[in-house]
UniProtKB/TrEMBL annotation:
Keywords: Cell cycle, Cell division, Cell inner membrane, Cell membrane, Membrane, Transmembrane, Transmembrane helix. The lineage of its organism: Bacteria, Pseudomonadati, Pseudomonadota, Gammaproteobacteria, OMG group. This is Cell division protein FtsQ. It is found in: Cell inner membrane; Membrane. The keyword Ubl conjugation does not apply. Signal peptide: none annotated. It is a single-pass type II membrane protein. It comes from OM182 bacterium MED-G28. Part of a complex composed of FtsB, FtsL and FtsQ.
Length: 270
């Protein structure tokens, strides 16, 4: 029986299709990947050899001496000459072994420096940012208080004579500073200025207002008593308040006022 010509044609077509499908599959680039890995490995080994041969020169280049200083802010009480003198012994050290902590400690030892921020800027620069104390008041004799109630002792304290004088027992400066700030706020509307505040060993408060009015507040109900005086003061004529020389607030129901021309105290009942 002779084969059907159509079956022969179909079998030939399937054979050709199979051969084309097999031949159309791309070869996997295994050889290309291996070659790339070999090149990378050789390059890495070459870099290691080069680094080993020149590590001293590379290290010296990377660890260059710090010779420049940049000031990142302005100061009122610390001069650039003082800063330069304080850090001169640190300059010239390599970038990576520069004593940042030592410079910070040295600068913060300056009487006017509250905090020093030190940063290295590659390849050879040091940046400085200093925060100075803000003098709020004098503390006793020869010391100053900053806004946090911390004591610091600059050399030029004579320039701070206009600051109010605060005083009190040892380690009471923060308490006194807080009371000073509170009383200054209470006085704002009256126009009176608080020039002095003293805390006695027994805990009693005394004030100096407008550089001439002495005020005894006592130990208890300090804010309430002080507010009572402010209310009284604001209700008087300027001609009357100008005569006040001293005030005693240590009363339950009133205050005692002494005028500069009077020998006896007057009592104002609330």
């Amino acid at each position: 029986m002779r084969p059907d010509p159509s079956d022969i044609a179909a079998r030939r077509l399937r054979s050709v299709s199979n051969r084309r499908g097999f031949n159309s599959q791309p070869l996997k680039p295994k050889s290309n990947k291996k070659f790339g890995l070999v090149v990378m490995g050789l390059a890495f080994l070459g870099s290691l050899v080069l680094l080993a041969q020149n590590y001293k020169q590379i290290g010296q280049y990377m660890n260059r001496p710090i010779t420049k200083v940049r000031m990142d802010n302005q100061w009122q009480h610390v001069s650039e000459a003082e800063v330069g003198s304080l850090i001169t012994n640190f300059m010239g050290a390599g970038f990576f072994n520069f004593d940042v902590a030592g410079v910070k400690s040295t600068l913060e030892a300056h009487a006017w420096v509250e905090e020093a921020s030190i940063k290295r800027l590659w390849p050879d620069m040091l940046t400085l940012q200093l925060t100075e104390h803000v003098a709020i008041a004098r503390w006793g004799e020869g010391e100053l208080l900053n806004q946090h109630g911390e004591i610091f002792v600059p050399v030029d304290i004579g320039e701070m004579n206009a600051l109010p004088i605060l005083s009190g027992p040892i380690n009471s400066q923060i308490k006194v500073m807080e009371q000073y700030q509170l009383m200054s706020q209470l006085l704002y509307s009256s126009g009176l200025k608080l020039n002095g505040l003293t805390l006695s060993m027994r805990g009693s408060w005394e004030l100096t207002l407008n550089e001439s009015i002495q005020v005894a507040v006592g130990r208890i109900e300090v804010v309430e008593r002080f507010q009572r005086f402010i209310d009284f003061y604001e209700g008087q004529l300027v001609s009357q308040t100008a005569k006040i020389s001293s005030v005693d607030l240590r009363y339950d129901n009133g205050i005692a006022i002494r005028n500069s021309s009077d020998e006896l105290a007057e009592v104002a009942i609330r």
